[in-house]
Amino acid sequence: MPWGLMVLLFACYCYQVQCQQSNILDFMLNFMAQGQADEDMEMSDNRGGPLLKEYDFIIVGAGTAGCVMAARLSENPNWKVLLLEAGGPELRVMDIPIFAHFLQMNHDINWAYRTQPSDKFCLGLKDRRCNFPRGKVMGGSSVLNYMMYTRGNRRDYDTWAAMGNKGWSFKEVLPYFQKYEGSMVPDAESEFVGRDGPVKISYAKRRTAIADAFVEAGPQDGIPNCDYNGKKQVCFSYLQATTNQQIRWSSNRAYLYPLKGKRPNLHIRKYAFVTKILINPQTLTAYGVTFESQGQSFEVRARLEVISSAGAINTPQLLMLSGVGPAKHLREVGITPLVDLAVGYNLQDHLAPALSFHTNATSLKLEQMFDVKEVVSLSTHNSFLSLPGGVEGIAFYDLDHPTDADGWPDIEIFMGTGGFDTNPALVPAFGIRQDIFNFLYDDIMRKNSNAFLLFPMILQPRSKGRIMLKSKDPKKYPLIYPNYFDDPYDLDIVVRGLQKCIELTKYPAMRKINARVLERPIPQCRKYGDVRSREYLECYARHFTFTIYHQSGTAKMGPKTDREAVLDARLRVYGIKNLRVVDASIMPKIVAGHPNGPVFMIAEKAADMIKQDHGYI
């Protein structure tokens, strides 16, 4: 059944019977969870015939990086490549951009990690634990994310190079950004943009008046409008997203869909949970993997390399399970260490405690997502359903250097149409405690008001966390300690970001839509008085500590002299032959932006390095 028709039928159902919001959520989750055999075969099947005993390359994880690696390495027809993914197919309904938050509640396609309880952050979330959704599906987190496309700042990559990582300066990585970009953004700066790559990038055609007001407020605050993926990053803009103005453009769609029936040397195995990388303890050489699939165990050999592209949580877990990691910690859980490396350290992430605002302008509401007219408009690329999770606008500030027009931003503010009260699906997605939500919004929901959210996202956090094993059982989730606000700078800059969000409402563009911050304090912070006060906002940030799902750095790239380094500049694991990591784990310092785009770049560059190392280019 065509995906548009499936969604149309679903929307008509909800529209005609006037579903309650809770029923819509339940129906949506059940709808997405149903396996669809025709799509499974059509979109990304277990290609290449029966599983071989040996391949040239084994890639663990079909996420953003893994799909790129599989496509690029299989360009050599003489190399046999196996791509293993723990999850299933990317179903068509997942590609509707507005449904991003629903996907993060579906545990069939989401690892659904949670951090360890804390008394310093995530205090307003269930069990004082942050939700860490990660993709368990073909395309990985590029299927779950909000499709927000940013490269970061050129200084991010120059810093990587200055840390001892030769070949990773902005000048050297720019061609790889341009290689994968298939940008449809009309005003993108020609010197920097890529137009012919496989990953579609676009503005949404449909916009709300709230988005217009937000973008207009930038110049009124002294910040210009510009292409933030161009020469300068400090500016306001409509969001650039990994869509074609209609549907999500995941890594799976960009790199693997076009290969259907064209790459007999590329084998893809879904529902394949890798439990260990096989390493010869005498020669310290990786030679294969073991994985479980549909109740069976398999062992497959790699002639040339094993590549972990499992992401910043699964990659360190897998390395440690395989004997690569902190020796003392591995012994504590009963694993014999092969090499003593700082695997799991250097965990970095972006957080953003969203503020609620009300407005006289019309915002997107949950019922509009299931409006027949919006579904029909999707085919013309002019539907609210094409808004990436409802996010419409984005801004970058260098608050530490406000007079620097070419700054290195420390805060990003992104604007989402609709609020927690108008889209309750966000509540379980972020893990907000129901009692706090009810106190803030219960009576407001009955008024059917218009709202929007501003997320001040810290871009250069100084706090670092750690991933640890819970046990040597690969099915036991790892222990996640993000250590948010461990460095006091992070709390200070995020509070200044919250203050900037409130300050924006004083400008004419925002006054025109009567934008006003929600004055009702969360109960646990009422003692600090005014919701604009620094003390209140510090308390607020510690309660609504929302991750923006940018976990990075847990298998750090760096020179041998760096005690935290796990990989060299060619992404090879120190001390182990034929083992590489290619995903967000490798980042020595998190980028000042959303890392999905940079991970595409990392994978494109890594593919070329591997080809060079094995004499293909």
Task: Walk me through the structure.
The chain has 617 residues and is α/β, with parallel strands linked by helices. It is built from 19 helices and 21 strands. Strands 1, 2, 8, 9, 10, 11 and 21 form a seven-stranded mixed β-sheet that branches. A six-stranded antiparallel β-sheet has the order 7-15-16-17-14-20. It has a two-stranded antiparallel sheet with strand order 3-4. Helix 1 (3-17) runs antiparallel to helix 13 (372-378), helix 8 packs across helix 19 (596-613) and helix 16 (488-504) crosses helix 18.
Topology of this structure?
Layout (H helix, E strand, L loop, with lengths): L2 H15 L3 H13 L3 H7 L10 E7 L3 H10 L7 E4 L15 H4 L9 E2 L16 E2 L8 H4 L9 H9 L7 H11 E3 L15 E3 L7 H12 L15 E3 L12 H6 L9 E4 L3 E8 L4 E9 L2 E13 L2 H11 L2 E2 L1 H6 L6 E2 L14 E5 L12 H7 L12 E7 L13 E7 L8 H5 L3 H12 L4 E9 L7 E3 L10 E3 L6 H17 L3 H5 L3 E2 L16 H10 L35 E3 L14 H18 L4
Parallel strand pairs: 1-2, 1-11, 2-8, 5-6, 11-21, 12-13
Antiparallel strand pairs: 3-4, 7-15, 9-10, 10-11, 14-17, 14-20, 15-16, 16-17, 18-19
Helix pairs in contact: 1-13, 4-19, 8-19, 16-18
